[in-house]
Queue: 2 jobs
Job 1
Amino acid sequence: MRVRTLAVALLAGGLALTACGKEGGPGDTGTAPPQQVATDVKVDGSPTFDKMKNRGRVVIGVKEDQPGLGYKDPTSGKFNGFDIEIAKLVAAKLGFADDKIDYKAIPSAGREQALINGDVDYYVGTYTINDKRKQQVAFAGPYFTAGQDLLVKKDDNEITGPETLKGKKVCSVTGSTPIQKVKSEGLTEPENIVELQTYSLCVEQLEQGAVDAVTTDDAILKGYASQSPTTLKVIGKPFSNEPYGIGLPKDDKALRDKVNDILDAAISGGDWQKAYDATLGKSGSTAQKPVLERY
Amino acid sequence: MDVLLDNLDLYGPGFLNTVELFLISAVGSLVLGTILAMLRVAPVPVMRAIGTTYVTLIRNTPLTLVFFFFALAFPLLEIVNADTFGGSAASYYFSAALMALILYTAAFVCEVVRSGINTVPVGQAEASRALGLTFGQMLGSVVLPQATRAVVPPMMSTMIALLKNTTIAAGFSVFQAGSISLNLSERGENQLIGLLWVAAFFIVLVIPMTLLQRSLEKRWSIAR
């Protein structure tokens, strides 16, 4: 008992020190009320579901460095964010309670391979649905629609949208879709493009003034903006359409249909809204309910 | 094959940049490493101390950390500003990568050269000093030429390691072979096949180096 009190005290102290407990802070994006865990779920003809059943646990691929979406709290080691809520919701409806979930942090570049190898049962982490990817994996959803946007310093009045980026240094993750878009559309000169390992490194460079803007999906940027509301701001003019889907093994149509059913029920039944309000919605922005695209 | 042909715009410039990074940093680290080795065998204690400190410090630091320093922390020291390296972000990060690779590899080159110097009998140095050569002349015309012969295989290993180390620059805004797989995943290509092609190209780059090593060894071999 004393050990637990001590642990709780330490944890509270740690939270206070890192200021993670503050309202709207990314460390405490909150969690939606737990879902009713479904029992006797059957997904006929789904090898992935059979694998989960035999294991008794579900392995979900997620992001760990995106506040508000998929973020691993460094103090508690717990994952939180909107993607995590969606992942939990799907798991619950498949018959797996929170304590039967194993999260596996997988960066963008490793997602297809993780699904192909069967390292994860499904993947929920800012995974944009596109036709190229559908050749390797399957998508349920979309469960959210994001758009590429810009994060700049609060006192920056020169950058007001993608067309004002000329001559400005723009940062994003190496090889990521947003930076490839900046390149292919010539939004800024090739020598002004900065590609680093993670978004957090880019944000650091922005705060130091080494780059002028960070670009990626608005949902991700909003998380960083709420982390430092006094120094950073999101422009708020999305210039692309990024439907986020749940990545599934390619040939598992049975599971894909099942997950689509689950999402459908969550979107119309209010669980989706609750998940949003508890996480991304805390930044004050509202989101449109997505329309499922079954195939 | 499709993965390669559809993405030639990645593979071509990617490997060109890798070769460029490699060639410049190879020359740079060979020069700096040889100077360091000379420092380490110098008769002046202060010079020896400088050489030893450098090697101990740099050789025990992970390369990624050296990259972090030059790409991200160095600008904060405000010794340099963006204009020092041509003004643009791309030229800054390229120079940062070069600095990191040269300084890191030089420590290894230094130790390889020094081990070569140790294979030259002391009598050679003593004889040349007795003939009236200065320390520099002795090293340059008597000891180093003989040392070079002994260090070809380990030096080539160090250079091959350098070639592969260049891929670390992918995370620090230098587009080269290491960035290819990251770009491929966003294009929705099969990464495993993409990486196999990257590996194949590296083998193609390493083979000439191995051949060069063999021919140098043959040309410089002597009957002892």
Job 2
Amino acid sequence: MEKSYIVKQISIFSENRPGRLAAIAGALRDAGINIFAFSIAEANGFGVVRALVDRPEDAYRRLTDLGFRVSFTDVIGVKMRDEPGGLSDIASVLGNAGINIEYAYAYSGKDGAVLILRVDQIEDAVRQLLGHGGNLLKASLSQ
Amino acid sequence: MASWNPRMETMPLDELRRLQFKLAKSLVYRLYSFNDFYRRRMKEQQVHPDDIRTLEDIAKLPFMYKRDLRDGYPDKIFSAERDELVRYHVSSGTTGKPTVVGYTERDIENWSESLARGFSSCGLGRGDVMQVSYGYGLFTGGLGAHYGAERVGATVLPTSVGNTERQVELMQDLHVTAIACTPSYLLHMGEVAEKMGVSIKNDTDLRLGFFGAEPWSEQMRARIEDWLGIRAYDIYGTSELSGPMFTECAEQQGIHIWGDLALVEIVDPATGEVLEPGEQGELTITMLQKEALPMVRYRIGDLTTIEEGTCACGRTHPRIGRIRGRVDDMLIVRGINVFPSQVEHTLLEIREVGRHFQIVVDRKGALDSMLVRVEVSEEAFSDKITDLMVIKKKVEHRLRGSLNVGVDVELVEPGTLPRFEGKSKKVVDRRSL
């Protein structure tokens, strides 16, 4: 049950220099892969590009073939109310349940706002959010 | 200029060569009789001590290399009993295994004697205060310069490396007149002093220094002498010879190699053939009086020339020119020898990174910096930045441990590092001396 809400994110190692994001995005465009959401985390000299795409397996294969270091990461996507307090509701549920958010990013589009989360106890998080009436993205969206 | 041992330092060349022959002959007999390693080597080369009939016959003897010390780790090729040793020094090896050098009391005595001659030929003596800013410890630089300076009657201030502001204060307060350190550390100290509002030229008593353990140039000498208002002398040695051992004299016309202690040959690095004076080749040294760890025709790997003929100072012993380069891919970073093979060896033991690498050496301000670029392995790649930072720190820590020099690590994308291009791409040296 919880598994069907665990979404496969692709994470790509990237050096922090001009043109790297263009190379990654170009490879996905050429393969006709759509990106729903993405974020970049940067450190000194390198970064990790994290993306939710419509065909993660294809994206993984395509980028790996091009020499990129790629991995899958399990994340969850939670629909938020696109108004004050939307983020607070979700963060409170997880906080009260003792679940730690390792990182998060969000987008706000025509179908509302979505929060992408990597947490330390993912199945617990799914249970807690569903139990509090949360609306989660289905893993099948990105298969 | 004062002379420490005038009779020896100005010995006529033919007399010096007779002395060298006598010393070489007895060394070879001693090693053949008592040292299994040398006897086996000589037998392989089909040479017997009786074949050494003239000084030139030394060329019949087999060469020694750094790998002989590594293979003999820690003390298999020593020629002294353990209870005769008074000291060890240890230097990092080429592949992660260090090399150990041992000293008898007489070895320390000869080392100090050699430096005493060099130091006094540049005017160091009683009444001087010498700040020794080479590292003390397993590295030979600190203790070597220390003993040499004490021998000539100078007062030694053993500051070692680091804590540079304090070094500048002590230099002023204790009226330091001389210094021994790497040329790049001296430049760093000069910059730190200026930031403190101290001009080494005008606000200290410093008047001369001995600089070595890394290559430097005549341009750098001119800059040091002009900026800091001192005379700057080159000092040469390696741990296999004992440590820093030979210096220039006040004429600054090459480094005097005391012939009663060391026999110098310059050989063709490819063929091993002995070259004529003035021709550039690989410095090869036989230590004529060393007891604990004798070195016979030791191929140091440094490229230089030799000059015979009496120096303007009156000393008769041969001189070597500036070190022009290396026969191998050894780098010298902040005075420490670094072989790319050590980096490779260390990376092989860390499963989080691949085995390919690139070393970038640069000089930021006066001090060298070393960057090692590595790829994160597929298994270790995490999309959490903190995990990747842990890998970076781990590699930095391990490299620092095996190289004895601080290293920055940069994680790069797979496939971006040189694979088969060899040395030229594996090492990028952006320093200009």
